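Tokenised fold entry reproduced for absentees:

. . .
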Amino acid sequence: MAAFRVRVSTGEAFGAGTWDRISVSIVGTRGATPPLPLDHFGKEFTSGAEEDFKVTPPEDVGRVLLLRVLKTPLALPSPFGPLAPDAWFCRWFELTPPRGARLHFPCYQWLEDEGSLALREGTAKISWEDHHPTLQQQRWEELQAKRKTYGWKTYIPGWPRCLNEETVKNLDLNIKYSLAKSINLYLRGGSILADLKLKGLLHHKGLWKSLEEIKIVFNFRKTPAVEYVFEHWQEDAFFAYQFLNGLNPVLIRRCHHLPKNFPVTNAMVAPVLGPGTSLQAELERGSLFLVDHGILSGIHTKVINGRSQFSAAPVTLLYQRPGCGPLLPIAIQLSQTPGPDSPIFLPSDDKWDWLLAKTWVRNAEFSVHEALTHLLQVHLVTEVFALATLRQLPHCHPLFKLLIPHTRYTLHINTLARELLIAPGKVVDRSTGLGIEGFSELIQRNMKQLNYSVLCLPEDIRARGVEDIPGYYYRDDGMQIWGAVESFVSEMIGIYYPSDESVRNDSELQAWVWEIFSEGFLGRESSGVPSSLGTREALIQYVTMVIFTSSAKHSSVGAGQFDFSAWMPNLPSTMQLPPPTSKGQASPEGFIATLPPVNTTCDIIIALWVLSKDPGDRRPLGTYPDEHFTEEAPRRSIASFQSRLAQISRDIRERNQGLALPYTYLDPPLIENSVSI
């Protein structure tokens, strides 16, 4: 028989090479070869290497269907025994038959211990179209193996289900941080930890003495945004700005009717609205906006340092003067129940009364942002996307190829979070006012309300009525990126799905959608989250939502955590005194006494410093070094997507030059492809 030429590419990461023996079996329409060793009598598979081999099948196997890759540990003669496990990261294989075109087999996977992989040629059709028994069997075996590796578990009842692993040590290498990323993460955390220990702050359970003393913590990791927050945190305009472009830019909505439990009067807001107008007139004009933290009403709170902590469920009314001026807060009620013990605070009140009311709102923002906007609606939801993708879509499936870059490291960071952040006695439990029990209750409440439109940015913007509020950079940049992702996804879906029927007939796609619905959204039909997809249009929106949530949404609500929280009074994680029940009682001393204690402040700042600064090994949105797609059409679509993102970035940076506080969280080069930190 004539020889086949085999070319192999090994990844460049540290530890990607191997001394183990690698063999291939060529599987064709007429049968399969025995394992054919790839051996030059040395370490062929070194990091970054591309090696050529010749193999000669004993007989003709017909048209090539699969390439089976086998890795066997290198054994030493007794008494030494086998060597330690030696993993290998394979990028791709190329197989050139004696006659015919070269075949490319994307891999981009780790093989551990004694392992094997079955690789499909890169231009393979959608897997449901494969009718050859060998290919059907291979798909079934692949998915069975992945479902065994990546199982589901319930971490806390009422939460989306998650990966069934207790610690990152046990994770499969294909979902684990690279060594470089792990080292950088722990070095980053260690550096700030050492800084605070040297200052004697980390275990100080007492109160801050003054706002000036808090600068001790503030001074160690300044950024331009942190500096801006420190200078402007007391200003009404900046308080309101954060509802548009801060950590939680997803709650503000246009107000057409004041809630019955928020009895604001014309007399209360006349100093802001000015003469000749009224609340009703401004409501009709669309100049009033509402932020309601009612989901916090009656939520469980913790005991920290032996002291009970407190939470509020405020309602905030904001005003945008038509045609000019910044968005401003004009009324704050700190509970959902109006009455003598729940006054409505106004900008005309005493300085400390008004500042304390705004700080209670900022504490509510911390709780809702960290538990819901960030943890639930990004981290937990994208973990469901990642797990379902691994379990239900074979590697040759075009949706797997499209989505796998947007799952990178998500399962690692979420497992790490369950170890170090949201476990009993860890950061959330010991340093937030709600603790694990309060976070759990909040997530369970929100799971009953969370709907598909909240996850789809254009629908969410319309539902909240904020299409035209000026200075809303989260909306402006987010809509640009949503449009770019949607256009890219539309092209890719058009390549592989010629009709609505082809979407309906893809059983693997439908199983993927069903698993997300059932495991992530707990089968709740009222969520509006699809349990199946029947059209190309529906598939395009769904995949756009998955990619946007995993990349841009995460960046917009995660990357600025340190910027907005380093000056703790702007975003306190807990409050040590109850909400005020009357006016005229606030003072500088009372304000400081309400804020988190020293050790809690340090604990939160360490966590948010680490979690908002990606520790290297990044892949920005639209960057796909793992070339799963080998055809020209998807490659052109990827290039077009990258070009559009580059133009969006240029536009954002040009706009930011004129802003006192540049909005950078949705600048494409700064957005990670996936939830990886």
Summary: The first helix runs from residue 133 to 149. The first strand starts at residue 4 and ends at 10. Confidence is low (pLDDT under 50) at residues 78-83.
